[in-house]
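Reader question, answered in our methods column.
A reader sent in the components of a multi-part assembly and asked whether the whole thing could be modeled at once rather than chain by chain. We filled in our standard form and ran it. Here is what they sent:
COMPLEX SIZE: two components
ENTRIES:
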Amino acid sequence: MSRWVLSGLKTGIKTTHYPAQQEIHAGVSPGLPVTGSAEGRTAEICPTAALTSSEGRIEVNYRRCIHCFRCVRSAESAPLDWQQGYEWAARAADRPALETGAFGRSLNVLVVDAGDCGACLSEIAQLTNPYYNIHRLGFFITPTPRNADVLLVVGPATDQMRAALKKAYDAMPEPRRVVAAGVCALSGGIFGPSLVSGAGAADVVPVDVEVPGCPPPPLAILHGLLVAVERKPSAFLSSPSAPANPVEAAP
Amino acid sequence: MLADVLREAEMRWPGNLYNRVDARSGEIECAPEAVSEICGWLFSEREYIFACLIAEERSPDWELRYVWYGAGDDGVIHVVARQPVAEQTFASLIGRVHAVDWSEREAEDLFGLVFQGHPRLGDFVLHDDRWNREVTPMRKQVDANAPLVRLLPEREWRPLLVLNAPGGFAMPIGPVYSGVTESALFLLETQGEDVIRCVPRLFYKYRALEKLAEGRTAAYALLLAERCNGTSAFAHSLAFCQAAEKIGGVNVPSRARALRILLAELERFRHHTAAIREICESTGLAVGASEAAILEEELLRLSCQYTGHRYLFGLNTIGGLTRDFEIGPCLQTLEMAQSILRRLERLEQRLRRTNTFVDRIEEVGSVSPQDAREFGLVGPIARASGVARDLRKMQPYSGYENFSFNVPQEQAGDGYARLRVLFAEARQAVGLIEQAVSALPLGPIRAETAHLAPGAALGWVEAPRGAAFHWLRLADDLTVERYHLATPSFLNWNGFHLATENFSFQDFPIILATFGLSMAENDR
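And here is the structure of the entire assembly that came back:
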């Protein structure tokens, strides 16, 4: 046993300083394309219709962008600007605000997989690794809806998961919040709406916070949780002029 | 030899084989009645391995294609049967080849085909509490965008068989359970402390990926292939690209082929590190799990830093890769991978010396070599049970024949054997990365012309979890007519119950973790 204690101590502290400071390590986020001028560019390059062209600008709808990189690597269109960063989560406009201090200082998160490809879930699993360690912020992943404060949904809400997702939400006590992570959960992504799947989690449960990305990196999901409990300001998902959220670009 | 096998087949079934024994494509077209005998012969006498069953509705006929493969010269054999669309009954192969069990159930649910002689049809991909039995989403007349008509009112699902013994009951686990887990339901039938058996109920995440690809361009279907399983996205997109490249006769430049191996092995290394982390977590070994998680995160960051994406999305394209890598990043990737491997090996040493850990995974969830062969298991699970199957050796692709590596094998078939295989394969993966980097050819990373043509082809890879086959058929207008994925998780879930017979309750998460299967890859 002492071997494990020693090796654990020898590893030192790996944990990020986010949210107190921005994390600038390379590789923490794949980044997102940014709205820009339409010159030499075409919105048709996007296979999921995340890009729209209007008034000489190409606008990005972050609810639909699946990180296929075709808008930056294709020969047919000048590359779109790309932005690092991860503070992408946005509050849904039509949901009521939370009373201050509603959840106290700790937050229990129930993760429900409503048909994701495994990448979103893998990124959520990273949240508890020593690099992100959400426990230090009072966030815990709970196996049961009965003591969950936040429902973290991934996947497009497949028909065969609808009943389970609804039941899990109904079993949660008030106050409760729903965070939808990943474009599948926001718009159905590449899988929905279709013959066996809805257009995202909002079809089944009321979504409070949306986290774009395919998959959203761990820090984006963490930002989503912080937005849900109003410890961080919300970003904008498809603003015509401003980028997702002004953050310092990673080196 | 493939040619010998085909010749012998012609001799043995002279009346039943149509004149379509094609030595080049390995296709045997035969009467529907003869399929069972020929496949049974291939499996039990010629020791071919079952790859997949591909059902296609090609008006005016059904086309059923059982795909088999062997090592080297034995090649890949397609046993094809056709009959009119109105005639929906086929003979089941299950009496002769058990491995086809799930493939036939899948075809029954999705196409409405009936496999005569199959003991358990229905309530598989499409849950019976949700949809009428008549719903067949993969038929051509069904619209991919219009929601299927659901069964109303929805029924409460009840398992088919429940243990009939004093004090016996079935404990359902899922579909929402535990911490961060994929959705699936497990029915543990218990009597007291011991679980007598476990019945998994999957396909909660059925996204009809194959249906969504139909009528779209191959470039769009590639996005779906990539996202059938996010944690082995590169392997699946590679299999898809290889199928498309075969159809179009595209020659992938040697630099792209070597880089594909580099990236595929990087993905395998990361996947196995994650699998090791999960095994540590399942036994409650917190420090070990944290150490593996640190390495996993570092590999994810490494992937993102040099390729742009943590899960290697958007790299494969039909004809090569979407971006080149300079030698600097390749060398840094190798250096990082080697340093992570050294730390992983130190973790392995510590795990081996920790009795409390080894005791929990040793002799837990055993699968015998006989069963592994019978049920057609693949990947690290089969290799831990003494069945050394690896498509990189048996039917090399992308230039694996020029690389030197061995296929780790264990005999015990228990959880510990599977863990040892994972560690050994991680070592091999880093060795392959090193070879790819040290002999990286110069040149373009994408074929100059990647024109597609109408036709069909099978692409395959040894994905981190085992053999994956992607069947792609392009119509005359070059849109996808049929796309079928046979994934390692689908093949291996079929044998999951083998490891979950007569075990104690607390071992269940450990068995689940040592199998390391994905629901997303299975459900598609």
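What stands out: The first helix of chain A runs from residue 2 to 11. Residues 72 and 80 of chain A are 5 Å apart (CA to CA).
Send us your own complexes using the same form.
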